[in-house]
Design brief:
The chain has 305 residues and is an alpha/beta fold. The chain is built from 9 helices and 14 strands.
């Protein structure tokens, strides 16, 4: 079972989190028992060392990384005759009050000129039923081929009121024309009939799947899709070196937790997301910076020659 790894990761996280405190606990116990001056000095030193470890981690996780986003540029090849630039925004989790990282996002939206913008779910926090605050970001989204979205935990009515150009695909597909290229985009739900939407993609020369989670990635590989874009996992928000995400909240577990994967001729990309899980979840990121991604699909090399 894929998500059995998450329990192992959680255990590993607990062990690593406690390690800096172990010397302090040992010397505190000894000092209470013996009241020796030498033990007290070791207790102070262990307290100092514990602070050296914990304080930078807490500052980074709560204040630095959540507001330190990055633009990742991904280059892949596909059945296109000209480059196709796709801006993926996932898990924005827009809130009533602007987050500091949103200033950076607005600069990116002004600087980038994608052909297509895709939103892979969790665009806002569900307690936001007023579209006005969403407009500060969503009204700035424009692309020649459109703005397409799949549903996460979203109120589609509120989102489209903030920007009517956003089109949600719910077990539905659309055919776009980029020069001589025919681009098919399908947006999937985890439930419901999908066959009709898949069938409509057959006329496309390049096929893109949008789903909020990585859980349908293997299905779309079997269906012959070229690119699968998703989010939801947030890259774990907290990651352990050499291990990765502790928790993904995905049925696929850590299989597609973050980044670019390839299965046969299908590319799978899982975004770390831009926002944070809603409270009461901890508002932290550690070794997992917020992210937006610009994916450029280039013509295959043998087709360029």
């Amino acid at each position: 079972m894929e998500n059995a790894y998450e329990w192992e990761g959680l255990l590993l996280f607990c062990v690593l989190s406690m390690l800096p405190a172990v010397p302090f606990i040992i010397y505190a116990t000894r000092y209470v028992r013996t009241q020796q001056q030498t033990t007290f000095k070791k207790l102070l030193l262990s307290m100092l060392l514990m602070g050296v470890v914990y304080i930078p981690v807490v500052v980074d996780a709560f204040w630095i990384e959540p507001n330190w986003p990055v633009l990742d540029r991904i280059d892949i090849e596909g059945n296109v005759t000209q480059p196709l630039r796709i801006l993926q925004l996932s898990d924005l989790h827009l809130e009533m009050e602007p987050a500091k990282r949103e200033e950076w996002l607005l600069r990116q939206l002004d600087a980038l000129s994608p052909d297509l913008i895709v939103l892979t779910g969790d665009i806002h926090q569900l307690d936001m039923t007023n579209p006005a605050p969403l407009k500060r970001i969503l009204s700035r989204l424009h692309a020649p081929l459109g703005i397409l979205a799949c549903v996460g935990f979203d109120n589609t009515r509120v989102i489209t009121a903030a920007n009517p150009e956003i089109r949600f695909l719910e077990n539905a597909s659309i055919i776009l024309h980029n020069g001589s290229d025919t681009i098919g985009v399908i947006g999937l739900l985890l439930v419901g009939g999908k066959e009709e939407a898949y069938a409509a993609m057959k006329e496309a020369t390049y096929r893109i799947t949008l789903n909020h989670t990585p859980d349908l990635a293997d299905e779309t590989v079997e269906k012959g899709m070229d690119l699968y874009l998703c989010g939801h996992a947030h890259g774990g928000q907290v990651r352990i070196p050499f291990w990765g995400a502790i928790i993904t909240n995905c049925e696929s577990g850590k299989k597609y937790e973050s980044g670019l994967y390839q299965r046969g001729s299908t590319y799978i990309y899982t975004s770390r997301g831009f926002g944070l899980e809603p409270r009461p979840a901890p508002q932290v990121r550690f070794l997992c910076r917020p992210q937006v991604t610009l994916i450029t699909v280039h013509p295959k090399k043998n087709e360029r020659q």
